[in-house]
Description:
single chain, alpha/beta, Rossmann fold, 2 domains, 6-stranded mixed sheet, 10 strands, 33% helix, globular
Amino acid sequence: MRKPSVELKNISKNFGGIKALDSVTVELYPGEVLGLLGHNGAGKSTLIKILSGALLKDSGQIIIDGNEAIINNPRDAKNYGIETIYQNLALAENLNPTANVFLGREITNTFGILDNESMEHETSNILDKLKLHIQSLKEEVKNLSGGQRQAIAISRAVYFDAKILIMDEPTAALGPEETAKVSDLIHNLKKQNITIILISHDIHDVFEYSDRVAVLKNGSLVGKKLVSEVSKEDVLKMIISGE
Length: 243
């Protein structure tokens, strides 16, 4: 039997008197895309923020590769190979792709001077590895398309050895052609055995990219299903009625 790369076991989180998560358990497997679904306020964002170190859980366990993980902040999460691609991509608009890939983790030479040549070479290599094309690495990010910007954010995560990639609304505001490129990119990431958690309000996206879905409602887990074994109508019923 396959072993999970990540287990979120009995995760609970309260905000004052509001129960944001109530003993939620979800497993993720290497090379799998798990679609996380639910209305606003269902608990999706809270769950991924706990995994990414942006929030502390009140109770429960995070198990990574069979061992309990201690995640108190985003740096801890990164040390476990957890990277998050937020909807706004968190890119520096006035910098070029290379500077964005290495932002905060720049390569320097023995004299402590930025090694721009090495960083550009590494950026080019990771883009090639992911079968992504950006015409110029000198162009400021603000001048690039939405799909190219998404590619830079994902390249940054993969270069720094992401094993678990959280993707928040990866096709939001993208046209059909760029959405198709994101689809290709997700398939390439799966081939590299990267575990992906996909959050989207678009059920068509979730069915297009995901192997399994997990549905949350009012902080509780409604269920987990293989995409191949359910219809979109089944999942919508889970989201709306909690059944």
